[in-house]
């Protein structure tokens, strides 16, 4: 009895019957299931009648996915093949074969990145050749099974989604500074969120130290923990910095250390290779460039002249400048002591201007030339108050450049909630760069600036040398600060004087855990506890202080657009 064509195996069919069967198979289109009702009814029918079709997004339809419908299921036989120990989402999200950054998926079995999930894509080929079936879209965080091409929805995969894209609610942000509970990665290593080591991508320790210091400034941290705050900003650098801040404070990391690869790549592009991998740089120059760049992008996206950067760090200082053309480098002591009228008659031109700043530069006195009893140079130690007199409104700072002799004195007009001090250690002459190793002893708590600074009046009249004081003799804003972060530059022992200290030095940062008042020292991947008494004995380069009573989000002060600043100001 002859079999029907549908029941015959292919080897028993004639060529005409085989072609008819192939044409019938091509024309068969699966019927789209129709699901009616709310989420509860849909879930019930998914468990009984079959899967619901999930629409394909525009991003998933690009690069080979096509408009093919995708089913959704809560049951997948390949969930046990996921290997969380090899997953690493810190690197640049590009396909490992085509090097494209559009519609990239990560294989949850081997951790490699591939493009697309259609039949002609690299992810589909990888699933058929390596038999790795689960992939996550790194943009939408949706997980698919290939080559069957259906979406997998399972609660056991939520930890992977949280690792790719950490999410912080307002309650989570409010509890960051009040908890000391440790988190644990997939390897069983405990870590404290916010105090994770950052990988050194070859001489990028200066960026790691600055990023750690900025990530512990509460207003800046809270702003970047919510992507909706800068969703309108199209700058990739701002986006990658927000991603890194969220990873630093996340409790769902698969590793206790983080690689800032994506952020450093965007920094290299945005700075036009001024700060690049493999090239050491000054942390102060990087801080000034980074803050101004982020401020310009955020203010442009918001359509205003202010940003969270200026709200937290911006202050104002009044600069009085006396300048004249001269070929002498010797100071004119007589005209220095004379008044404004006598100075004008002797050729000095006087100008007064109000300029904003993001950090204040403190000049460190040069080291002594004599040696100690053992024949080595003495490393002096000076208190912080000795270098704060630059802004007392009396001391002049002299400079000669391009045949113009200038003398400046500074009067602080306003102090920000988060005050950054830069200790000017590096100097350059005609032969080589030098570093001043003088140790500046600064207090960790209760730094009072009321008696150290001269505070200028808020008016812009000509008679503006009087100090601005209230009825009780105090300025109208708080002047007491506590240290929250400290960046240190170290040199290796035995470094020759002819060697560039910037190229051979290393950076580390001290940050404070608020709830336990414990200080931590972070140098690249190494995180260790330290005592606050040792912080003031290091060769500090940057110190970030917070004002007493400063709110979690800094007050808006109507920041100006930052312009060119005179020497000594950020």
Structural description of this entry:
The protein is of the alpha+beta class and 570 residues long. The strands form 7 sheets. Strands 14, 18, 22, 23, 24, 25, 26 and 27 form an 8-stranded mixed beta sheet that branches. Helix 9 (236-248) packs antiparallel against helix 10. The termini are far apart.
What is this entry, summarized?
The chain has 570 residues and is of the alpha+beta class. It has 16 helices and 27 strands. Strands 14, 18, 22, 23, 24, 25, 26 and 27 form an 8-stranded mixed beta sheet that branches. A 7-stranded mixed beta sheet has the order 1-2-7-6-5-3-4, with helices on one face. Strands 13-12-17-16 form a 4-stranded antiparallel beta sheet.
Number of helices: 16
Q: Which stretches of 5+ consecutive residues score pLDDT under 50?
A: 28-63, 459-472, 552-570
Shape: elongated
- Can you give the mean pLDDT? 80
Secondary-structure-derived class: alpha+beta
- Approximately what portion of the residues adopt beta-strand conformation? 15-25%
Count of β-strands? 27
Counting copies of identical and different chains, the oligomeric state is single chain
Instruction: Using the CA coordinates, give the radius of gyration.
Output: 31 Å
Helix content: 10-25%
> Biggest sheet, open or closed, and with what strands and sense?
8 strands, mixed
Instruction: Give the CA-CA distance, first to last residue.
Output: 95 Å
